[in-house]
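Exercise 3.2. Students should predict the tertiary structure of the chain below and write it as structure tokens, then compare their answer with the key that follows.

Predict this chain's 3D structure.
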Amino acid sequence: MTIQPGLPKPEAIIFDMDGTLFKTETLLIPVHHQVFEQLRLEKLYEGATPPEELMLSCLGMLLEDIWKKVIPDSSEAVHRRADELLLEFELAGLKTHPTELYPGVADTLTKLKQRGVRLFVASNGLEHYVKGVAEAHGIAHLFEGLYSAGQYQTASKTELVKLLLDRHGVSRAWMVGDRSSDVEAGKQNHQTVIGCAYAGFGHDQELEGSDILISSFEELLELFEHSHL
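Answer key:
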């Protein structure tokens, strides 16, 4: 990371969850297989489980769009049942699987909060999943708000971030995420975008348009210290 002294100091930082704070594959890979095993048991799906890589490549999308890509030939009813199973197995998995945040997440968030930064999450995931991850890893108390498409029924990350900014009276924020939807949400809401290049779920152009890219979460603190009002 090359420090750019021109970045404005944020009053708030908004984080994506999957691929930004949470090392999602530590939960999603085992759960992915459980979902399709159950769908086969319920006679709702036949054939092999779709590749793990396909599911991981969909991180950051709304659930309805994920299933259209992962099981495009299945019905809407099957997609909705997959929603239910995914949430059920993810919530159980947070208690039983050794899931992980990215290195330095809890410590960096704590230090940013100590410096007076208001912290938020904006995720395209389901409400109980987003809150469950934060609670399972002991970081929920650090956030002023945990916003999810599942809770607010927003059609895009851009809409979700606008709702968050308006509700909390935030005018100067950093949007931190690993997908093009995060870049779009930040830019369309006229905020600074910090692209997380360490997850590796997207293609090379995924973070195009970010103001700066970071290769580890801890770099955020240094970036904040070098920003200015």
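Discussion points: Residues 21 and 131 are 13 Å apart (CA to CA). The two ends are 21 Å apart (CA to CA).
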